[in-house]
């Protein structure tokens, strides 16, 4: 399921609240996530699963999977990040609504907007905007994530589906978990992939030294298998336009996988080393310092799923943001690949 405010707002921090729990006989055989949900009821199971996946939970000092079955006498330690006592404050923030009915909402999230309140981002979030514009939203994700079934990174724009009822939330979440949804992203990369299309299959886990990054890691407690299909749509001198269909939904998956093949997302500071590009750099005129883009060039263009109530296929598409479209036009004009 798509977890995914920036990872820095999600990862356990040494200053966060530490909880030590002893597994009693009555909890023998319980799943780790279910046990924690009973012992720490102020957090939803969805929230606790994320903490487990990020390595914030240890059983007798060792990292474990969400479905690990506990034994009596084991010690469970968990570091849980702080959260607001109440839900997000409703804020009159304009939203680009792509679709709405009595059950779901499809919204085009702008770049720079964090999805839900997290450390350092208590206001200006998508959930604050949703709480202002809609009277009914699902409560499955907890008080501070009303309606949120999946998410996008702060600087990734594009389509998101929001649940109005808990019933629809569970049905949508099941589709994400079963990987029956089809998510299509559009990216501009620095560097051109060698192949016209390919599948990247590399496990992703927490970076060994950089707490706000993920990394290609095998055989680690935080690692999970990840699969990404990509197709090169246009080639330019030094850049490429790429269509991406992730088959799994790991944190920062597309960004990590594209960086792994040597073609990081343009303006992705975390995985590409820089956060902006100027018009002069594309035109090879260093005197022109006009900034064309100052956010990662990654856009969730389309999502296809079954409507949680009618079970009929439904698809939502978000137009490419103007800044990314502007970069494409510059590349077509000044970085076109010359035919042989």
* Annotated CATH architecture of the largest domain: 2-Layer Sandwich
- Average of pLDDT: 88
Residue share in helix: 10-25%
What about the largest sheet? 9 strands, mixed
Total count of strands: 17
**Poorly predicted runs of 5 or more residues:** 1-16
* Full CATH superfamily name of the largest domain: Pseudouridine synthase
CATH topology type of the largest domain:
Pseudouridine synthase
Approximate shape = globular
* Structure classification: alpha+beta
Strand content: 25-35%
Number of helices: 8
Topology pattern, helix = H, strand = E? EHHEEEEEHEHEEEEEEHHEHEEEH
Q: What is the first-to-last residue Cα distance?
A: 45 Å
Using only CA atoms, what is the Rg?
21 Å
Number of domains: 3
**CATH secondary-structure class of the largest domain:** Alpha Beta
Outline the structure in words.
The chain is of the alpha+beta class and 340 residues long. The protein has helices spanning 32-39, 45-53, 126-133, 166-178, 253-260, 269-272, 279-283, 322-334; strands at 17-22, 57-59, 62-63, 75-80, 96-100, 104-109, 157-163, 182-190, 197-201, 204-206, 214-216, 227-235, 239-246, 277-278, 291-293, 298-306, 313-317. β10 and β11 form a beta hairpin. α1 (32-39) packs across α2 (45-53). The radius of gyration is 21 Å and the shape is globular.
């Amino acid at each position: 399921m798509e977890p995914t405010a920036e990872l820095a707002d999600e990862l356990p921090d040494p200053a966060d609240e530490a909880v030590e729990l002893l597994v009693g006989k009555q909890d023998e055989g319980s799943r780790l996530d279910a046990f924690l949900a009973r012992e720490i009821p102020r957090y939803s199971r969805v929230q606790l699963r994320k903490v487990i996946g990020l390595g914030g939970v240890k059983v007798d000092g060792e990292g474990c999977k969400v479905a690990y079955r506990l034994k009596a006498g084991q010690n469970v330690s968990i570091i849980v990040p702080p959260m607001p006592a109440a839900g997000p404050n409703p804020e009159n923030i304009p939203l680009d609504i792509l679709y709405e009915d009595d059950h779901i909402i499809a919204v085009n999230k702008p770049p720079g907007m964090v999805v839900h309140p997290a450390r350092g981002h208590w206001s200006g979030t998508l959930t604050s905007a949703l709480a202002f514009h809609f009277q009914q939203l699902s409560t499955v994700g907890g008080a501070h994530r009303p309606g949120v079934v999946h998410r996008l990174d702060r600087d990734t724009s594009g389509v998101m589906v929001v649940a109005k009822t808990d019933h629809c939330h569970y049905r949508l979440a099941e589709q994400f978990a079963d990987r029956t949804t089809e998510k299509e992203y559009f990216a501009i990369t620095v560097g051109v992939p060698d192949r016209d299309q390919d599948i990247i299959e590399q496990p992703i886990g927490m970076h060994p030294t950089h707490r706000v990054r993920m990394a290609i890691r095998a055989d680690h407690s935080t690692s999970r298998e990840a699969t990404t299909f990509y197709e090169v749509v246009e080639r330019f001198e030094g850049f490429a336009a790429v269509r991406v269909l992730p088959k799994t939904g790991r944190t920062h998956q597309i960004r990590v996988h594209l960086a792994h093949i040597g073609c990081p997302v343009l303006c992705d500071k975390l995985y590409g080393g820089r956060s902006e590009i100027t018009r002069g750099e594309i035109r090879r005129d260093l005197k022109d310092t006009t900034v064309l883009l100052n956010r990662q060039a990654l856009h969730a263009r389309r999502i296809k799923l079954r409507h949680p109530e009618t079970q009929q296929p439904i698809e939502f598409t978000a137009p490419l943001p103007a800044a990314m479209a502007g970069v494409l036009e510059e590349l077509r004009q000044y970085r076109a690949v010359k035919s042989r």
